[in-house]
Design goal:
The structure holds 4 protein chains of 4 kinds.
Chain B: H1 13-44, H2 60-85, E1 96-103, E2 106-110, E3 116-117, E4 120-123, E5 128-134, E6 139-143, E7 148-152, E8 158-162, E9 168-174, E10 186-192, H3 194-202, H4 217-227, E11 253-258, E12 261-266, H5 269-277, E13 282-284, H6 301-315
Parallel strand pairs in B: 1-5, 4-10
Antiparallel strand pairs in B: 1-2, 2-3, 5-8, 6-7, 6-9, 9-10, 11-12, 11-13
Chain C: H1 5-9, H2 25-28, H3 33-61, H4 72-91, H5 94-107, H6 116-135, H7 153-156, H8 161-188, H9 201-232, H10 246-280, H11 287-300, H12 316-344, H13 353-376, H14 378-384, H15 388-418, E1 420-421, H16 424-450, H17 465-495, E2 497-498
Helix pairs in contact in C: 3-4, 3-5, 3-6, 4-8, 5-8, 5-9, 5-15, 6-8, 8-9, 9-10, 9-11, 10-12, 10-13, 10-15, 11-12, 12-13, 13-15, 13-16, 15-16, 16-17
Chain D: H1 3-9, H2 14-45, H3 47-54, H4 59-84, H5 88-118, H6 126-131, H7 133-168, H8 178-202
Helix pairs in contact in D: 2-7, 2-8, 3-7, 4-5, 4-8, 5-7, 7-8
The chains are: A mainly alpha, B alpha+beta, C mainly alpha, D mainly alpha.
Bound molecules: heme-A (2 copies), dinuclear copper ion and copper (II) ion.
């Protein structure tokens, strides 16, 4: 009853993604060594965000799956982000 | 009490009560209108009077209307709620400060000249800022007549303010659940004319424990206990409350837990002193640690002597 | 439940089909969604009785100032356990686990939920959680923190707060798994032709609820774990003495617990949206508007939690943002009410007992919802927060709303579930007594709150005496009504008149097109849906 | 199980179980979400102390663990390719490597934790009480979040062991490997969370 035609991802794609992830990890470690002060967290989070996007898209097959999974994942991440932002309406303006 | 009395008990009453009128007014209108419409429909379209239903799947125009109208109405409600509340957040620069201290389970109020009371005394028509301090858990200071309430959070500096507008005594409650005697954590606010207040605040005789010969030492000891709210946790008649009872304690042996060790101690002057200043050093067996705070700033050495007199008197 | 019934009917109903097991195992090992629904129903009845008795005890204590029947410690424990039982054991799982489980697969034309064994597991987790809650009553004494477990009191008290919190944690798991199961079922198992916008409204609300269960419950789970960390390890997340922020606890608690109130009310609204068209013999008015408002409530409901913290010392910005969002979330509820009433317009209304519950639901829900607006505004909530007014608001809406819907639902689906009928005139008598008692019980609390009586007060000043007496009398009246209702239903479930009528009320959904009581797999053949729901022609 | 209830479980719907797994992952995300809220609030109010406290953590160790997890994620992802290519041996090897890497991660974590505890830092330790509020909260969060993460690693390992056995016994094959894919999803989630934990704790000096 499975209605998904499984897309077989070649090994090389995974290898490539790993390489990318490692480079990004290296970058984020390197970036913290130089002082970007207030931007360093933002940069670190940006890099982490990019990394997780790759993991979600390729390793977790979101790129190849039905659209509904992508929609859900994006909405839920937005929800969590909104909750954090709203919490900060309190803390940032105390 | 909830009245439309023009002589407002505080400067916030007008704004808050206006918000009440608006919101309750709209709400009651909708409640009554919708209920009546519903009852009319139920009556008019009862099956025996109206056996064939007329099908109708909806009407987009109506949906828009009954989204838009409530939307406007709730914004109106929001506006009045906001306007009534806004002044509460802006305490004036120049005002009398009173430190309101809450602990399980009583309030005390400390004035600028160091005087401490268990009832709040304020002069009429002048702004008062309460600096809210909670010593142990959350409490909340609520004066219904003034329409003010603010939680007291340990470790956070917060203020609330008001201008009392009517002379008299009003209730003051703790409205944040804080444990066993939460419901007994109430006191009063006394609003008095400026001159009366000045006379009262400069009269320091009531606060300092002058050793007068009229009342017995033991009675003065009881007064100290009462003023500090000790009786919320310690009983006079041997009942087990949060802490051990006063009764039959003096001079006896007690098993206490010191750190992790158990040991036996005599209830003597040193023990009583330590129990008041470092309450968690020796905890009597069967009671919990961490519930009592040090009374170092609130209770002087002389007062402890009076308390001991009281304990001795209980043994007789 | 005699087995040769099946010969007369030509099929075996789910009540007879016991999978060849013996005794109690016929039930507790069955993965049939209908049997699991009844398992939930029976276990909830037990907790519900406990909760009601605790509520009554509180009212008796409050009949006069001073100590009447219990001391302050017992009172504090009573409202805590009452709150924990009612919220976590009854109204959060209540409608989804009982009627959702029973009706959802049938309403979308499926043979069962997507994961039947997970469904049974959820029930076991529920039982485990409730046992933990009950265990908290022993040992150091029942918890006395209030159902909100506010820090720092919750890790200072010497009572058994931890088992109760762990119980809530475990119950959260059960709730999450049920929600997960329903969402997958709805996505994957709709019968051919059952498009999204042909789904019955009860199913729609279960879908919305499922998402809230899934996405909000983990937050309270982790929060309670952090409190446990504070209590056991002394980490200090919420301990001001160690730098923790007690307000953060409140944020986290309400990030779950506000959406949780919509977990409770959405399925209740779903039930009402089923009953009203059936008894008006008329298509629901504004089907799509109701669906959209369901989703809107589920979504916006995430962002209003701060209205429980208006006096806690949040920043001004947060305060008015939360206030305005609170008002916005009221709009979709209003839309539903208007559509329900419009459905009655030009209908052909039969005032049978389920309809009476639905109509009275609308009335008490209006009171509860509109007073929600009163506490949603900043100025008024500063005055009313933590007073009896709030207690009245949430009893009107939680138990007025969810409770009335529950009774509506059970009277509506009773013949389908049990294949028996209750006595209608007793049901009506019970309803009217209950309704009158209800309003008398909670109505005076609004007034008490307005004049400043704080909640969670074991004792009160003399000036609050009058309304409290009225309220206690109301409680007694209401309990009388409740006894009549429950006796009538329990009696009917055991000895009531048998019925095999497929569609006693003239409903249009699929559950009315299968035999009564339903066979094990609901449908011999998966139906193909052509008509929209709620179509009368 | 009787014939009738077996009948209910008979049909197989891979998409349904994948959807179920995703929903579960969303739940897990919100679980950690609560902790991330806590983290960001305390980071905001004690940012200075967090910076200093983070110096106590070993960046090298953290980086190594990050690399390990990333590699393990890849090997597991590859195993879904292998099984679709009907290559049972490679599948097993890849799952095996993942498990070994997971173990290495835990061993590293063990040494890291014990080093902290050796320095007198554990939740509620006297040293932390001296160091002050920011440090207490930082290390409280550190132990709590990495601890919860480690619990997830262990759960993930259990799932992978089950998957391994099933593949071995040919219960999971090229046309029926949803369990492997679900185990993979769970494992990537664990990775995903670490991707955020790493910079938030180790890289804020
Ligand atoms: C089922 C549960 C449920 C539901 C559905 C609601 C619904 C609402 N609640 Fe309630 N609430 C609780 C359960 C619930 N609540 C509980 C348990 C507490 C106490 C927790 C505790 O502290 O222990 C609480 C507390 C509570 C507070 C905190 C009070 C305080 O502690 O100070 C507030 C404040 O804003 C609030 C507001 C609202 C609002 C605005 C709605 C709205 O969603 C209501 C919307 C409905 C309507 C508005 C009625 C229908 C509309 C019309 C008829 C049309 C006309 C309308 C307009 C003109 C807009 N609730
Ligand atoms: C569902 C929620 C629910 C229900 C039904 C009730 C029912 C009752 N409650 Fe409530 N109550 C709470 C939730 C509920 N309560 C909560 C959350 C608190 C706050 C606790 C706290 O402060 O921490 C509270 C607090 C509370 C207080 C305030 C304590 C204080 O602040 O000092 C009082 C006081 O009298 C009270 C009384 C009662 C009474 C008399 C009943 C009952 O005896 C009435 C009888 C009930 C019914 C007649 C039936 C309703 C039917 C259903 C709900 C569905 C049935 C489901 C199945 C059978 C499976 N309750
Ligand atoms: Cu102090 Cu309640
Ligand atoms: Cu709310």
């Amino acid at each position: 009853m499975s209605d998904t035609s499984h897309h077989i991802v070649p090994y090389s794609t995974y290898g490539l993604i790993l390489l990318l992830l490692l480079v990004l990890t290296g970058t984020s470690v390197a970036v913290t060594q130089i002082e970007l002060t207030k931007w360093s967290t933002a940069v670190a989070l940006l890099l982490a965000g990019t990394k997780s996007a790759f993991v979600l898209a390729i390793f977790m097959h979101l790129k190849f799956d039905q659209k509904i999974f992508r929609i859900m994942a994006v909405l839920i991440i937005l929800l969590l982000a909104s909750v954090i932002i709203i919490t900060f309406l309190d803390y940032a303006f105390r | 009490m909830y009245t439309a009395d023009p002589q407002y008990a505080s400067n916030f009453v007008a704004g808050v009560d206006l918000a009440f009128m608006v919101i309750l007014g709209i709400s009651i209108f909708f409640l009554i209108a919708l209920t009546i419409v519903m009852l009319v429909f139920i009556y008019k379209y009862r099956r025996d009077r109206h056996p064939e239903a007329i099908q109708n799947e909806g009407n987009n125009k109506l949906e828009v209307i009954w989204t838009a109208i409530p939307l406007v109405l709730v914004l109106v409600m929001f506006y009045f709620g906001w306007m009534g509340w806004k002044p509460m957040t802006n305490p004036p620069e120049e005002a009398m400060h009173v430190k309101a201290i809450a602990r399980m389970w009583n309030f005390s109020f400390q004035y600028e000249n160091g005087k401490i009371t268990d009832t709040l005394y304020v002069p009429i028509n002048e702004p008062v800022i309460l600096d809210l301090v909670a010593l142990d858990v959350l409490h909340s200071l609520y004066i219904p007549a003034f329409r003010v309430k603010e939680d007291m959070v340990p470790g956070q500096e917060k203020v609330m303010w008001f201008i009392p507008g009517t002379e008299g005594e009003f209730d003051l409650f703790c409205t944040e659940y804080c444990g066993l005697e939460h419901s007994y954590m109430f006191t009063g606010v006394k609003v008095m004319p400026r001159d009366e207040f000045d006379a009262w605040i400069t009269d320091t005789t009531a606060a300092a424990p002058v050793v007068d010969t009229e009342t017995s030492l033991a009675d003065q000891g009881w007064e100290v206990l009462r003023r500090n709210g000790c009786n919320a946790c310690h009983s006079v008649d041997g009942t087990k409350l949060i802490g051990p009872s006063y009764l039959g304690g003096w001079g006896t042996m007690r098993s206490v837990v010191t750190g992790r060790e158990e040991r036996e101690v005599v209830v003597d002057a040193e023990y009583v002193r330590r129990s008041i200043y470092e309450p968690n050093a020796d905890v009597v067996e069967g009671f919990n640690k961490g519930l009592m705070l040090s009374y170092k700033d609130m209770c002087s050495e002389e007062e402890i002597v009076l308390i001991i007199e009281y304990l001795k008197a209980l043994n007789e | 439940m005699t087995s040769n019934d099946s010969e007369n009917k030509g099929y075996k109903s789910y009540l007879e089909e016991d999978g060849g097991r013996k005794g109690i195992f016929k039930w507790i090992l069955s993965t049939d969604h209908k049997r699991i629904a009844l398992l939930y129903l029976y276990s909830m009845m037990v907790w519900f009785t406990v909760g009601v008795v605790l509520g009554l005890l509180m009212k008796l204590e409050l009949i006069a100032p001073g100590q009447t029947i219990m001391g302050p410690q017992s009172y504090n424990a009573t409202f805590t356990v009452h709150g924990v039982i009612m919220i976590f054991l009854i109204v959060i799982p209540g409608l989804p686990a009982v009627f959702g489980n029973f009706m959802l697969p049938i309403q979308i034309g499926a043979k069962d939920v997507a994961f039947p064994r997970l469904n049974l597991l959820s029930w076991y987790i529920y039982v485990l959680g409730s046992i933990l809650v009950i265990l908290s009553l022993f040992g150091n004494g029942p918890p006395d923190t209030g159902w909100t477990f506010y820090a720092p009191y919750s890790f200072k008290t010497g009572t058994n707060m931890l088992p109760a919190a762990l119980g809530a944690f475990v119950l959260g798991f059960s709730s999450i798994l049920t929600g997960l199961n329903f969402i997958v079922t709805i996505h994957r198992m709709r019968a051919p032709g059952m498009t999204w916008f042909k789904m019955p409204l009860f199913t729609w609300t279960l879908y919305g609820t499922g998402w809230i269960q899934l996405l909000a419950t983990p937050i309270i789970g982790i929060t309670l774990l952090m409190v446990a960390g504070d209590r056991i390890l002394g980490i200090g997340f919420f301990d001001p003495a160690k730098g923790g922020d007690p307000l953060l606890y409140q944020h986290l608690f309400w990030i779950y617990s506000h959406p949780a109130v919509y977990i409770m009310i959405l399925p209740a609204m779903g039930v009402i949206s089923e009953i009203i068209p059936t008894f008006s013999k008329k298509t629901i008015f504004g089907y799509k508007a109701i669906v959209l408002s369901t989703l809107a409530i589920a979504f916006v409901g995430y962002f209003v939690w701060g209205h429980h913290m208006f006096t806690s010392g949040m920043s001004g910005t947060a305060l008015y943002t939360f206030s305005i969002l609170t008002f916005l979330v009221a709009i979709p509820s209003a839309i539903k009410v208007f559509n329900w009433i419009s459905t009655m317009h030009q209908g052909s209304i039969s005032t049978d007992i389920p309809f009476l519950w639905a109509a009275s639901f609308i009335f008490v829900f209006l009171i509860g919802g509109l007073t929600g607006l009163v506490v949603g505004a900043l100025a008024t909530d500063v005055h009313l927060h933590d007073t009896a007014f709030v207690v009245a608001h949430f009893h009107f809406i939680v138990f007025g709303g969810v409770g009335f819907a529950f009774f509506g639902a059970i009277h509506y689906w009773f013949p389908k579930i049990f294949g028996r009928m209750y006595d209608k005139s007793w049901a009506k008598t019970g309803w009217i007594i209950f309704f009158v008692g209800f309003v008398t019980l909670y109505g005076p609390m609004f007034y008490l709150g307005m004049i400043g009586m704080p909640r969670r007060y074991f004792d009160y000043l003399d000036e609050f005496h009058g309304p409290n007496i009225v309220s206690t009398l109301g409680a007694l009246v209401m309990i009388a009504g409740l006894l009549i209702i429950l006796t009538n239903l329990i009696k009917a479930a055991r000895h009531g008149e048998k019925t095999t009528e497929m569609n006693p009320w003239g409903g249009t959904n699929l559950e009315w097109q299968i035999p009564t009581p339903p066979p094990l797999e609901n449908f011999d053949e998966i139906p193909v849906i052509e008509k929209a729901t709620y179509k009368y022609d | 199980m009787s014939a009738t209830s077996a009948h209910i479980n008979e049909h197989r719907d891979d998409t349904a179980s994948k959807l179920g797994m995703w929903l579960f992952i969303f739940t897990e995300l919100m679980l950690f979400g609560g902790l991330f809220i806590t983290y960001s609030v305390y980071r905001y109010s004690h940012s200075g102390a967090f910076h200093l406290a983070a110096q106590e953590l070993d960046v090298t160790m953290g980086t190594i663990n990050t690399v390990i997890l990333l590699i393990s994620s890849m090997t597991l992802a590859m195993s879904t390719t292998a099984i679709q290519k009907k290559d049972k041996r490679t599948t097993l090897i890849l799952i095996g490597i993942t498990l070994v890497l997971a173990l290495v991660f835990l061993v590293n974590k063990y040494f890291e934790w014990s080093a902290k505890i050796g320095h007198g830092i554990w939740p509620g330790s006297p040293l932390l009480e001296e160091l002050g509020r920011g440090d207490t909260l930082f290390f409280g969060l550190y132990f709590f979040m990495t601890g919860l993460h480690a619990v997830h690693i262990i759960v993930g390992m259990v799932i992978l062991i089950v998957v391994f056995v099933f593949v071995w016994k040919d219960k999971l094959t090229f046309d029926n490997f949803q369990l492997l894919e679900n185990g993979g999803l769970y494992w990537h989630l664990v990775d995903l969370i670490w991707i955020f934990l790493f910079p938030l704790f180790y890289l804020i000096t």
